[in-house]
Specification:
heterodimer, A: 286 residues, alpha+beta, Helix Hairpins, SH3 type barrels, Alpha-Beta Plaits, 3 domains, five-stranded antiparallel sheet, three-stranded antiparallel sheet, 10 strands, B: 263 residues, mainly beta, 2 domains, 24 strands, 0% helix
Chain lengths: 286, 263
């Protein structure tokens, strides 16, 4: 048994076959080294002029092409008839094509997405309630990392058919803060105070000027909108500092933020609300 | 002790520097240097450096940053620099400049204090603005650049600045060659292309010369590389952050008053 195996190995490991194996190893090693070298120089030369996404696409195209060439060269060394394989690949391609219509649709969508440049690697997007930073834009899908560090793969076909919000497309954004103040408050004073808070906050941009709108006379008070502009990377710090400063200033100035009150009765018969009279009238009435 | 001269901090010693609204403390503790800063509400005209005698005088809520150096005899130097981004200067009151007229404004810009450390060759340790400037945007909402906002009195005489030692005076000459009066509301000065010079009385930057040719035309901006001639014996204290071409064609005036995009 052992002798049979040895003789079988001896038949395979002939000097001729060894040369072929060495040639294949050389093709793989040199090919991969050459590919790495090309990818390194492509990255270095494209870094200054092109976006991260363009660099990624070029690198992927080069990688796939190089790997295909290496495969062809290996098959040639093994004396495999390429014409037959390519013919079979063509037939298989048609069959696979029919079977993978969704994938083809994704690829075509990917081409449109890439050419449209609606977003690029590093942008923050919102799709169907998911928001995150784009890690890669590939032919089949877009990969994003959500803010709670989850990896989400969104098929390109979905992105073509869905509303996509690119949060960081433009360098500056407006933070809209909706406020409600009691009817008794002096609107001019509130406006002055809000603009003063905005002016003092170093994260709020002086230009474009902040937006102040008296939206409507609501059920609980006068509804206001304060829109402050900020640099796209300062979202959290601007929001937190502004909300805190508004609350602190309103408390200090005695400006009331009205809110609806809800009374809950747990199964018992509800008593009438207590009313306290201020002045010379009876103090407690039920 | 001259504020911008080289100095050493003895082990256990603390130095307090006051530069406008900025209070800076530097302490030498064993083989470490500790730096802390605080801002007062008012931008007062103060420029002083003193040795702290009693450590009980230090504010209690200071948060220190620790810096470790190989040589405990390291020398320090505070270097006045201009802001690290362009500054959009807005005059307190709108100014109109008639056609074919020129004017020189002396803008005062807060100092950015660079703490340099080292004996032979000094390296930047930390950089602190003497006044926290708010951000502003120069350009439209889709393209433009992030700048610091600065309101200025746009004084036309150096004497009017008085004893202004904690700010850098930037002379800006504007020539209006446009067909209409120049409505000077906002001016973007790329201070990162400017050097800082120290005179006997003031800190200076190079002269900036702007030729305005109309709203639709880009302005021509020149950053002079000569030492300012407003004071004798001006010495270079810091070089420009970003070297500039001598002439820059740029849209330097902004007429965008408000953005009312509201959905």
């Amino acid at each position: 048994m052992f002798e049979e195996i040895l003789s079988g190995i001896e038949k395979i490991i002939t000097p001729g076959n060894m040369i072929v194996v060495l040639k294949i190893a050389a093709i793989i090693i040199i090919g991969l080294l050459f590919l790495r070298l090309i990818l390194f120089y492509v990255k270095r030369t494209m870094k200054k002029r092109f976006s991260q996404q363009s660099i990624m696409i070029v690198r992927k195209l080069l990688s796939y092409t190089a790997l295909f060439i290496i495969l062809i060269l290996i098959l040639k060394q093994l004396n495999v008839k390429l014409a037959a394989i390519l013919g079979a690949a063509g037939i298989a391609g048609i069959a696979i094509g029919f079977a993978s219509q969704t994938s083809l649709s994704n690829i075509i969508s990917g081409v449109f997405l890439i050419s449209e440049k609606a977003f690029t690697v590093g942008d923050i997007i919102k799709v169907d309630g998911i928001s995150g930073i784009i890690l890669s834009v590939d032919l089949l899908s877009v990969k994003i990392r959500t803010f709670d560090n989850q990896y989400v793969r969104i098929p390109n076909e979905k992105l073509i058919n869905t509303e996509v919000v690119n949060v960081t497309k433009f360098p500056i954004r407006r933070l809209d803060i909706n406020l409600t103040i009691a009817y008794k408050e002096d609107l001019s004073r509130v406006r002055e105070l809000l603009l003063e808070i905005t002016e003092k906050n170093p994260h709020c941009l002086d230009n474009p000027e902040p937006l102040f709108v008296i939206k409507e006379f609501g059920d609980h008070g006068v509804e206001l909108l304060l829109g402050v502009w900020f640099f796209k990377t300062d979202y959290l710090v601007t929001k937190n500092t502004m909300m805190q400063e508004i609350k602190e200033h309103f408390d200090r100035e005695g400006i009331e933020i009205p809110f609806p009150h809800l009374s809950l009765y747990a199964g018992s018969i509800s008593d009438p609300l207590k009313i306290q009279m201020i002045g010379n009238k009876p103090e407690n009435l039920h | 002790m001259n504020m911008w001269d080289e100095f050493q901090i003895e082990n256990g010693g603390t130095i307090n520097c006051q530069i406008g609204s900025l209070s800076l403390w530097m302490e030498h503790r064993d083989e470490e240097f500790l730096i802390s800063q605080a801002y007062s509400d008012e931008d007062t005209n103060v420029l002083s450096a003193t040795q702290v005698r009693d450590h009980g005088d230090l504010p209690e809520d200071l948060s220190w940053n620790r810096y470790i150096v190989q040589d405990p005899s390291t020398k320090f130097q505070l270097v006045p620099a201009l802001p690290d981004r362009a500054v959009v200067v807005s005059p307190e009151f709108p100014i109109k400049l008639a056609t074919n007229s020129d004017v020189v404004f002396y803008m005062s810009i807060p100092v950015w204090v660079q703490i340099m450390a080292g004996n032979k060759k000094k390296a930047l340790f930390k950089e602190i603005p003497s006044l926290v400037l708010s951000n502003t945007w120069f350009g439209d909402t889709m393209t433009g650049e992030l700048c610091y906002a600065l309101t200025t009195r746009a004084l036309r005489k150096i004497e009017d600045h008085g004893d202004l030692r904690h700010r850098i005076i930037c002379p800006v000459r504007i020539l209006n060659l446009g067909s209409e009066p120049l409505d000077f509301q906002n001016l973007c000065v790329h201070v990162e292309h400017l050097m800082v010079f120290g005179g006997a009385e003031h800190l200076w930057s190079n002269d900036v010369f702007i030729i305005y040719r109309g709203d639709e035309q880009p302005s021509e901006i020149r950053y002079e590389d000569k030492i300012p001639q407003y004071e004798t014996k001006c010495v270079t204290l810091s070089s420009e952050r970003v070297p500039s071409q001598k002439t820059i064609i740029s849209k330097s005036f902004s007429f965008i008053k408000s953005f009312t995009a509201f959905d």
